[in-house]
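Meet our chain:
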Amino acid sequence: MAACALAAQTREAEYLEEAKRWTRDELDTFSHALGALILEMETQPFTDVLGRHYMDFAISHESQQWNGEFHTPKEICELMAGLIAGDTPLSEDGPITLCEPACGAGAMILAYAHNLKPMHRQRLRVTAIDISKVACDMCFINTTLWGIPAEIVHGNTISMKCFAVWENIHWITRGYLHLLAPTSIAVDGNATDGIPDCSPISQDAVQISQSFLTAVASKQGQPPPPKTIAKIQASIQQQEFDFI
């Protein structure tokens, strides 16, 4: 429900269907929990707080609920991200693409984004895949709240059987986000990248965004298109080649 709530009205049908299972008091508890999570995340930038809590919960319950999942510790994520970010030359324009074939809650993605300069982070485009639907939703939450454009695929990386894909708001709006707000403003006389200002939004921009988001909503949770699967396969093959 948190993932749906952060999807800019593009996962409303999924949200309403899930909400039927819970009482009003339970829904209120969920909203308070999301608020508490966000407050905790703000004190630990680009840290997978959600995955850590999930692991604490999973390990404390029966093993069949855990399913052998293991979320990589922050220190290891930072080490690997630093090695990748430091060794990979980045162009000065165009997207910076990243494929995470076993994303979990997105800890590796957050660590990599944290290692990028802000000017490069804005150009990051992430394709993440995991066999666990819960992990996909956690990754959706983490990438959305930390402003990382991502498409999250529910699927099996080994067999390449993919069941559904969701795009977060940052992925959706890249390329025409300027219609809603600039990405560079002056703060105390200094230009600051990545912080939108509060300039009035034109009626035309609102109409364009609403129309586009409606179209996106019809594709959320549907099987990924062949080009997405082909992109994942190509990335995994490259990763295997680099490893060898």
The longest helix spans residues 24-42. The chain is about 50% helix and 15% strand. The longest strand covers residues 124-130.
